[in-house]
């Protein structure tokens, strides 16, 4: 081991890189803890490795979290201002709770100082821009006082995701509530709420090209996450946030590496969005996220959350594993339904990948927006102008779709933990479409008929859920 690395190990073990219980003020360090170059200073990092002078003088109280934050400050020399800050809780005001899930609460707040931004001057030194207050979201990690491996994992995945794409909500930093001792993630504020709220309040004002644009941003995010080797495991309309007319996947609390999975028999998530193979306690895969995306496609079509009118219990689980899928809105184009059904195929190996979906939805998006170079271009069996006509025709039905509904008291759309035993094997779906007019029920213009399920049985199941 080289001498510099010996010094680094000593500093990490003796001073924990967070200055906790250390007397660094009286110590002149011989080597920088990052670049290992010799220097004579009271600080742990040389000027080149800490140009923003943000690494010293604070601690979160957790050594691993300190190192995570300090590493981003160190790396910010190369990737612009993508650093994560430790922010004292008293630098926030007007804190108001705006949401709650199964494992976290979300607040809006005014960050008095705003994000630290620096620019490099001609002399090579970095200068901080003037402070500007900004509105942010604070996500409280319930029970995170000791920052378990699970919570640290969420931070690392979220950070890696944000550093890998510009199409994500910004991850500003971490703070800690001095009363509860819970850690909180500081995020860019999504001023339009989540997709579920948008569909509930603005559905009849959304054209199909608007919804396709939302789907495009969603699948763009999911594509990046899958490329990094992670699955989301908790994709639903409440976790798709909206800002400036764009969609962003959020909440990486259940996310993980595809090659590392828990061996327990518990199922986590919002039940209607969980893939049938996962309900059957089979391993979660990237295609399980695709199933959830397909369910969101049905919700975007109908304006209603999936299975809103029945209990989210083992009976629903059995029906999902058997053959039941959420409804579509009246007038939904056939090509859209076909794609959603492919995403929700009971055979996970037959679902499209995020990359395949991205390429198809990009074609749909530019076609419906009238981009000239796409109109005569033919992909996936249709020309762009044909795609445009299909969705514009479907726009005519939007005013006729009612989004009012009565939700069953036990239809629950927050994360929960489930344990199911002895479920039936998911049915491999092969679909035919019933006649739109004869089988229209509650704005549903089509239902799946499975080759191993009689139409009369299917009809009884539809009646039970409406």
From TrEMBL:
InterPro entries assigned to the protein according to its UniProt record, in alphabetical order: Kinase-like_dom_sf, Prot_kinase_dom, Ser-Thr/Tyr_kinase_cat_dom, Ser/Thr_Kinases-Pseudokinases
Kindly state which keywords UniProt assigns to this record, in alphabetical order. Kinase, Transferase
Q: Which domain of life is it from?
A: Eukaryota
User: TM segments?
Assistant: none
Q: Which residues form the Protein kinase domain?
A: 92-363
Q: Which Gene3D superfamilies match?
A: Transferase(Phosphotransferase) domain 1 (1.10.510.10)
A Pfam family this protein belongs to? PK_Tyr_Ser-Thr
User: What protein am I looking at?
Assistant: Kinase-like domain-containing protein
Q: Name one GO molecular function term.
A: protein serine/threonine kinase activity
Please name the PROSITE patterns in this protein's record.
PROTEIN_KINASE_DOM
- Stretches assigned to coiled coil: none
